[in-house]
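[step 3/7] inverse_fold.run input=structure_tokens len=230
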């Protein structure tokens, strides 16, 4: 099963991906946690190029191609081999992020994005995409709080403009509306634990009961804090 997490920056995707992986591993399932851009050594090198802004002078078209080049290597080196041995792959962002970010930010047309996605992803589309949804003003507030806390540097694709987050939110909601069998939209304004339980229930439903295993509920542990990987 290939599961992707999508949504705005600051929606808690990385934390939820981690909590889900932990619960599924506790049930004895093999889980590969990965992320985009990145997820393989070559794709991580491209990530550095993209998020540092070093690729920006080449323009939005080149950036779109770089996200796709990273994805092609990630699929080849990490995702497809894991799926082939029946591991569960949990990926923090995937092709929908290119549709949303490069579509909205870079004004790259839908036809081009769709063609690149078809060429790179092919039939390795996610089985389930969880979109964590936040109103744009909450996103802006979370990003500001994060910056003020001084923890992490924002990346090239993170802005604090309200209109930018409004457009991204609608892009993700539009993707969900067009692919209702694959995408589930959940509010990211509920508590970390509640959200983790809702996600686990969803995944259990999709995995079906035929495996004869039940997945333990996530516990209220002290490490269930929002966290961000870099
Ligand atoms: P992250 O902060 O979730 O690790 O994602 C890194 C940034 O890259 C985030 O601001 C969104 C952006 N991004 C794109 O613009 N296009 C893409 O295809 C992907 C995967 C991420």
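[step 3/7] decode complete -> sequence:
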């Amino acid at each position: 099963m290939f599961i992707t997490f999508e949504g705005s920056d600051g929606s808690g995707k990385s934390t939820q991906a981690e909590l889900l992986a932990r619960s599924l591993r506790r049930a004895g399932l093999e889980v590969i946690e990965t992320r985009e851009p990145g997820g393989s050594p070559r794709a991580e090198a491209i990530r550095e190029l993209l998020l540092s802004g070093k690729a920006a002078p080449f323009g939005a078209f080149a950036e779109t191609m770089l996200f796709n080049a990273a994805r092609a290597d990630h699929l080849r080196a990490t995702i497809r081999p894991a799926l082939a041995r029946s591991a569960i792959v949990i990926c923090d962002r995937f092709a929908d992020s290119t549709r949303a970010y490069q579509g909205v930010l870079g004004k790259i047309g839908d036809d081009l994005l769709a063609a690149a996605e078809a060429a790179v992803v092919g039939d390795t589309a996610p089985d389930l995409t969880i979109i964590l949804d936040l109103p744009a003003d909450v996103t802006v507030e979370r990003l500001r709080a994060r910056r003020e806390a001084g923890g992490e540097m924002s990346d090239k694709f993170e802005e604090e403009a309200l209109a930018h987050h409004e457009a991204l939110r609608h892009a993700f909601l539009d993707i969900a509306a067009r692919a209702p069998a694959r995408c589930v939209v959940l509010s990211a304004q509920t508590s970390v634990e509640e959200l983790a339980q809702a996600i686990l229930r969803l995944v259990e439903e999709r995995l079906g009961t035929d495996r004869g295993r039940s997945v333990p509920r996530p516990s209220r542990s002290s490490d269930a804090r929002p966290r961000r990987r870099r």
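[step 4/7] annotate
Residues 60-84 form the longest helix (25 residues).
The chain has eight helices and five strands.
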